[in-house]
Amino acid sequence: MSIAKTYTPADVEAKWYQRWQEQGFFKAKANPRKQPYSVVIPPPNVTGVLHMGHMLNNTIQDVLVRRARMQGKEACWVPGTDHASIATEAKVVALLKEKGIDKKDLTREQFLAHAWEWKEKYGGIILEQLKKLGASCDWDRTRFTMEPELTDAVLRVFVDLHQKGLIYRGIRMVNWDPQGGTALSDEEVIPKDTMAKMYHLRYEVVSDSLPVVSEQNNTDNQQLTTNNYLTVATSRPETIMADVAVAVNPNDPRYTHLHGAKVRIPLLGREIPVILDEYVSIDFGTGALKVTPAHDLNDYELGLKHNLPVIDILNNDGTLNEKAVLYVGQDRFAARRTIVKDLEAAGHLDKVEEYASIVQTSERTGAVIEPRLSLQWFLKMEHLAKPALAAVESDEIRLHPPKFKNMYRVWMENVRDWCISRQLWWGQRIPAYYLPDGTFVVALSADEALLLAREQSGNAELQLTDLRQDEDVLDTWFSSWLWPISVFDGFKDPDNADVNYFYPTNDLVTAPEILFFWVARMIMAGLEYRKQVPFRNVYLTGIVRDAQGRKMSKSLGNSPDPLDLIAQYGADGVRAGMLFSSPAGNDLMFDIKLVEQGRNFTNKLWNAFRLTQGWEVDATLPFANEKAVAWFAAKLQAAQQELDEHFDKFRMSDALMTVYKLVWDDFCSFYLEMVKPAYQAPIDAETLRHTTGFLETLLKLLHPFMPFITEEIWHELTQRGPKEYVCVAAWPKAQPAAGAADLIARMAKALDIVAGVRNVRNQKGLGPNKPLTLAAKTDDAALLQDYDGVIRKLAALTEITVVDAAPAASVGFVSGGAEFFVPLEGQIDLGAEKERLEKEVGYARGFRDSVLKKLSNEKFVANAKPDVLERERQKLADAEAKITALEQGLAAL
RNA sequence: GGGAGAUUAGCUCAGCUGGUUCAGAGCAUCUGCCUUACAAGCAGAGGGUCACUGGUUCGAACCCAGUAUCUCCCA
């Protein structure tokens, strides 16, 4: 049988994924005899396609889940998607537009029919893509946030929270997209740097409003108010009609004389007060700020503080309404151009300045966002936030890395009420029903609402047609925050076996950007509805950036297509590549080289397997590799222990690197080279048995990271039973063996000697196989005896002898306090050799002196811990020995 | 403007309560090798004033203060 020289993932990945599914390995069900391990996927947007962020995030989840499965836990990874109101609705609107259909011409029902059709057709592509990555989700459990059961959960929770008095309607400043006709969340708003104009407008000071001029402000330092004008800087002159005050800083000496005064809005003539507030920054603009509560968030808050009225001059579509009095019906930008001309004509325009500013635009429509007051539904947060904060503070839930705890705390301590309504159709419609008198009732269904409405109004004649359901839908997060409970049907049936068994889930893997929007809210919902946190650990991944540190985005075109990557490098290579450089919470600087490294690693493993497969066994041969086998067994134990520690700390990169080095360096470069028989020579049965066993253990340790290749080799290695897959093999347990540390240390010394010889070969330009001999001047002859075979094989030596003095014409090196010589007749440059030794001895003396200095410091000797002192004395002794050896070597030259 | 975190090799990062081998890894670099498992490889080597300035200490990458730069969060 000949095995391909390079591993080709495309040949095997689909096969194994299918087999795993056929075997039902990913299916999980409540099983009291096993320990549960559950993870809910952060539901990707149903309209989405796989991007690099998903790759990273889901690779990490899969590693955790696969390891748990191998550890014998009932591993349950619940997949699914969310309905992403705004993104999906925007996509459907765009699609309809292409077909020549305008959303405005459709009824709600018609539009939703289109949306569902679209969802059925394209939704879930992303889940299929996850399978290519190897994600071991229990696909039978796939959920969607807008499916009937989950919608039911959302409505129940809304009704419940309303009954508890936690949901209310209120006015709030929202990001209004005049083109899309909806409010947007902060995440859907993109700030754009632009050059804007700052218009300096003269507001006439109402003369009889001025207080008596006092001694201190009668000087003429008030240029800004010359001729009884107060100059205000604004970038939005069209909003002056909505002004309700002009604010100045009370500490601004330029305006002291205006305290308590009134000014007149240009063109309009309405009088408004000058108010004082330290919020106004003295250096910005003219230091006088027009206050327009309806059209600016900060102004709104200023207005609340100073009890000012609110004048909203804008319609939903961005045109001016009749409250503006002037320019009614004009678009906000058209009105701006007109008013600037009129202001100038009337002599109110002092000057125009350019300045760099940031304009908020809609992610979906590109329109400039209008801060706008509107009536929205809110959820009170204080009651929910307190226990959710405590859960993280007490480490009941651990954030990885823990630096996010600070952020979490700050946010939870300053939490604001959650605006849960969205002016969209795609989503769960708010179950509030308005009565003809304008009051409303909240109920799970229209029928229930009618009963309530009759009761509330005292009007038994009320009919369904008299009720009008709220037009808005709920924020998508209002579905997602229930996810860890709702996927196990914990609202419909709070005591079902699944939810009781799998909730709380164990680990959550997600991005720090949604720590507040999602993670915190899930904690709140979990505590509110199940009195238990939804998960124990939250692993926060970083953002995947390109090598230049730019965020990967479609518009930049700097993101590789994940599926192309998988096709090219194999899912295992890509998974490893993603993990090589992704410490928790740090951004991942993605570089194709990382994926290459991952691919190379799969190939390395493949070739190790190839080597062992090529061996012929000779049963008559004695066991020839006891030292190598004992050493690697010890090494394996140590690595397993280290690996488990990394996993426990959620250090995924380090975990992978541990196995990577174990396989590449220890197993391939050292172990296999030690036991490898000469070309076409047979191997003894005992060595082969151990080697195959080691390889199996390595496959198990690697499986969570590289599921496909490990399964392939697992089956190629030997005949397997029908259920015998590495996917469900028992995770190797680290069993600390007595004397393991000593075995490892002794072999390290032997390998250091090997490296010394190889270095000599390199320096002298000798080939790797030129037969050499080695002479050693050492106190530890036992080491050379014990590891004679290993050293001779790896260093290609014919003989190792112990000597009392350096042989003539040889190159020396020092290893572990002993001196070694490679006799090289006729190839020695005495001068160079002397120079090298002198350099080395000088270095050693310097080191000895620094240790000596430490030890002769009385305070050090008095204060240092005994073990530290002991170490220093040992260092001194070693250094002395080395110096002596080197000096003798020099003398011998 | 307020808050949090960071700054260690060319790059990405480790470095646990200050003291093991005068600071580690992977990648990259350099040198030599197509040595019948692997050139997607093998062997070896070089590379750091631990951002800067002070302080505490017998001893500082680590603790403290200040400075600089960067990132994120909130406004």
CA distance, first residue to last residue: 56 Å
Can you give the helix content as a percent range?
A: 40-55%
**Reported CATH architecture of the domain at 9-159 and 476-557:** 3-Layer(aba) Sandwich
Q: By helix and strand content, what is the structural category? A: alpha/beta
Subunit structure: Monomer.
Motif ('HIGH' region): 44-54
Keywords: Aminoacyl-tRNA synthetase, ATP-binding, Coiled coil, Cytoplasm, Ligase, Nucleotide-binding, Protein biosynthesis
Motif ('KMSKS' region): 551-555
Describe the structure.
- Belongs to the class-I aminoacyl-tRNA synthetase family. ValS type 1 subfamily.
- Keywords: Aminoacyl-tRNA synthetase, ATP-binding, Coiled coil, Cytoplasm, Ligase, Nucleotide-binding, Protein biosynthesis.
- The structure is a single chain.
- 43% of the residues lie in helices and 16% in strands.
- By secondary structure, the protein is an alpha/beta fold.
- Among the domains are: 9-159 and 476-557, HUPs (Rossmann fold), CATH 3.40.50.620; 189-210 and 227-362, Isoleucyl-tRNA Synthetase, domain 2, CATH 3.90.740.10; 743-828, hypothetical protein PF0899 fold (2-Layer Sandwich), CATH 3.30.2320; 831-892, Helix Hairpins (Orthogonal Bundle), CATH 1.10.287.
- Strands 7, 8, 9, 10, 11, 12 and 13 form a 7-stranded mixed beta sheet that branches. It has a 4-stranded antiparallel beta sheet with strand order 6-5-14-16. Strands 27-26-29-28 form a 4-stranded mixed beta sheet.
- Helix 19 (626-648) crosses helix 23.
- The protein is elongated, with a radius of gyration of 37 Å.
- The structure holds one RNA strand of 75 nucleotides.
